[in-house]
Structures are given as C-alpha cells and as structure tokens.
Amino acid sequence: MPNFSELLSKYDVPTPRYTSYPTVPYWDGALSAETWVEELKKSCSKPGAALALYLHLPFCENLCFFCGCNTVITKDHSNETSYLEYMLAELALYNEQVPALSSVLFHELHIGGGTPTFFSPANLSRLLSGIFEKLTRALTFTGSIEIDPRHFTAEQMDVLQGFGFKRVSLGVQDFDPTVQKAVNRIQPFAMTKQAAEIARARGVTSVNFDLIYGLPYQTKETIKETIYKVIELLPDRIAFYSFAHVPWIKQAHQKLGEHAPVGSEKRELYEIGRGLLLDTGYIEIGMDHFALPSDALSKSLAAGVLHRNFMGYVEQGSEILLGLGVSSISSCSGAYSQNHKIFGEYQASIQKQKLPVKRGHVMTEDDQMCYAHIQNIMTAGKTVLDSSVALSQVRSRLSELEKDNLVAIADNSIQVTELGRAFLRNIAVAFDNRLHSAKPESIMFSKAI
C-alpha cells in the first residue's frame, strides 16, 4: 500500500471543491431569469421553507495576491451608496416577482466580499435596514460577516450588533511578516487581536479565523508560530484552507508560484496545524474546518444536520439561499443561478428593472441523487446507496481508493476512513456523474491537496 506521501502525489490532481453539485463549469449555462423565478416560487411554496441570504460586497482597498474572490479594487468610497441601492433594488425585484419570498422565514444572513467592512457604519445600517424591511425575520435569525481587521472599527460592530449579528469571520491567513509581505497583506497580530476583542465585547458568540496553507515562504516553523498565535486568541471556528493556486484564472497568483510549497511539503503544513488544533481541543469539521466543542458547528456535526454550500460549512441547509450583488450565487431545491460577474453588466441589468441573472442550472433527478451523496461524503464522511446499479458504478470508480484504504465499502454503505479524510474531494468525484461523462478538456479546478 502506498505511504502517505505517495498518496498525496497520486491524488493531488485538479478536483472540484463541491460547494455545489453540479459544479459551476458543468451547469447548463444560460438560464433565463423567468425560469429561475419559477424555481424560486416552487421552493417558497414548500412547507417549512426557510431563507438564507448572502450579500456580496466586492470592494477592497488593496489586492491580496492569494485572493480568488470577485473583487473591485478601489479607495473610492463614494461607490458604497450606489452599490447598496442596487442590492436593495435587486431584492425589491425579487419581492415583486416572487411575492411569497417576503413571508418565507428569513433565518440567516451572511455578508462576504471583497471587504464588507469597506462600508461605513452609516451605509451598513442603511443596507441592513433595507433588507429587514423587505423580509420576515425568524426568531432564530443569525447574522454573520467577513471582517478585514485592517479595515474594522468599533462603530461598525455597534451597527452589526444592533441588527443581531452574533458571528464574525476574520481574514487572517498567516501571521508571519515575510509571508504577509509576499501576499501583499500586512496585518500584525495585535490588529487581529483587537478586532476579535471588539467583536466579543459586543456580543459576538462565534469568531472564525480564515487561515491558508501553501502560501509563499511558509515553512513548518512559521506555520507552527501562526497556529500558536491563533490558539492564544482561541477563535470558536477556524477555516484552514489550501491555497487554491489558479494563475490561469487569477493573474495575481502568477506572483506566488515560485516560493510556494507544493505536494507533500504543502500538505505537511496542514498536518502540523491540524495536530496542534486537535491537541487544543478543536473538532475537525468535514474538510478544512475546525470548531470548539461548544460552537454550533460542532453541535450540528454531532446532530447530523451539518450542511455545505457556497458559504462553506453551515449549521443546516436552507430551502432557499438567495445571493444579492455582483457575482453572487443563489440556490433553491431545484436550481442554481449566478449574477453577472462584471460590475457594469450587473448595474445595467438592475437599471433596466431586470434580475441580474447571468447563468444557472436546473437540476435533473440524477443531479439531485449525486448531490445528496456528495453532501453526505463532504459533511458526514459516509453515505448509503439505495440502488445496486448505482453501487456497481460508484464501486468501480472507488476501487482504487478502496485499495489505498481511503474508503471502506460494506453492503451499500461507503465510509471515509481516517486516512481518507485528507482526500474527501477525490472521494466525492466518484459520485460526480457529469464529470465522468464529460471530462474537462482544460484545467478548471485547483488541485485537491
């Protein structure tokens, strides 16, 4: 049987991250706003339907070279007011075309970017007031926001506290000064500590840190020091992502390849961090995530209701995830849609009183089946097939991974082994009928490890 280093070499190939199924490159493509609206109406009519909202605020004052997000780099804050008006106009269009949406219980809001704290306290307040005026807030509402500690004030947190935000996610990535300089993100430890303290002093009950391994100049020693500092602040959750090096998509990534660790050297950084976090008492959540036992994410894992979507791991799924803003992705029980990614096209669509849907996908019955199994693998590490035909097909695809002790198969049950936790993306591929029926002709995905 191959050793761990050999397994890394074998399976470190371009692979989807499976924040959706089908993955975006395999969507049907052009989806009319009318079709998307009809799918939303179906989801709204389902008993107990719940709504989660994602707001994409794309502005950043500076470009972090590792970033893979859809961003607008500018120091001109006059864009704030017009952009929030566009998002509120977009929500108004949804309420007009899907009237039932306003009465579906709105239980979760996540603000991402970009740098959401690019927005002034006054404009954050205007945006959130406009959102809550148009939707029916659930008693269990949870608000969360991504924060850049370099652009964050107590006044902004005061506004968020007033709207019931209890979760924040701090962009950290790495605390080493050499690494920070290489990725164009200078952020001293004291700045991150202050941001966490501001949030906690205002009632935040779950602080997340985003970390990245595989960045230029990271070593075993520097990753240890970063994790030690993280543990000192003891965030409730940690996302410890692999650097998705995609220079064919993101031009800034071309600056990072030469000094970035790869392969087994890169994975060793994760294993060092993982060991330190587990020793501290964190629980490993699916892929790349950790949480303290007291955090709701750990409790969701234990209860078997953990879910994975475009926002990463969340405590439970929603019938409807509605994304507002440029490039935002939405989903409902039967379909996906994505807004225009080009800022001008998004604005033009709203100005014409049209939903800014650029592309999407209506799921087939086979898509729904594959989606369910991939969700199970990515969240629970196991799944059960109810068809002998499907078992035969998937077992054939898993045969090599089974030989390498990454999965165990008994009857119709497929279980990820402890060794296989590092290869969740590779295992999920076995359930991806679209990828197996049409292999990509060019590189679309980052490497699995």
Strand order of the largest sheet: 9-10-8-7-6-5-4-1-13-14-15-16
Mean pLDDT: 92
Quaternary organisation: single chain
Q: How large a portion of the residues is in β-strands, by DSSP E?
A: 15-25%
**Cα separation of the termini:** 19 Å
* CA radius of gyration: 21 Å
| CATH class bucket of the largest domain | Alpha Beta
| Count of structural domains | 2
Count of distinct strands: 19
Q: How would you describe the shape?
A: globular
- CATH fold field value of the largest domain: pyruvate-formate lyase- activating enzyme
- How much helicity do the residues have? 25-40%
Low-confidence stretches: none
What is the second-level CATH architecture of the largest domain? Alpha-Beta Horseshoe
**CATH superfamily label of the largest domain:** tm_1862 like domain
- Structural class given helices, strands, pairing? alpha/beta
List the total number of helices. Answer: 15
Question: What characterizes the major β-sheet?
Answer: 12 strands, mixed
What tags apply to this protein structure?
three-stranded antiparallel sheet; twelve-stranded mixed sheet; 22% strand; Arc Repressor Mutant, subunit A; pyruvate-formate lyase- activating enzyme; alpha/beta; 2 domains; 449 residues; globular; 39% helix
Task: Please give a structural write-up.
There is one protein chain. The protein is an alpha/beta fold and 449 residues long. The chain is built from 15 helices and 19 strands. It has two domains: 23-362, pyruvate-formate lyase- activating enzyme, CATH 3.80.30.20; 365-437, Orthogonal Bundle (Arc Repressor Mutant, subunit A), CATH 1.10.10. The chain has a twelve-stranded mixed beta sheet, sandwiched between helices. Strands 17-19-18 form a three-stranded antiparallel beta sheet. Strands 2-3 form a two-stranded parallel ribbon. It is globular and about 60 Å long.
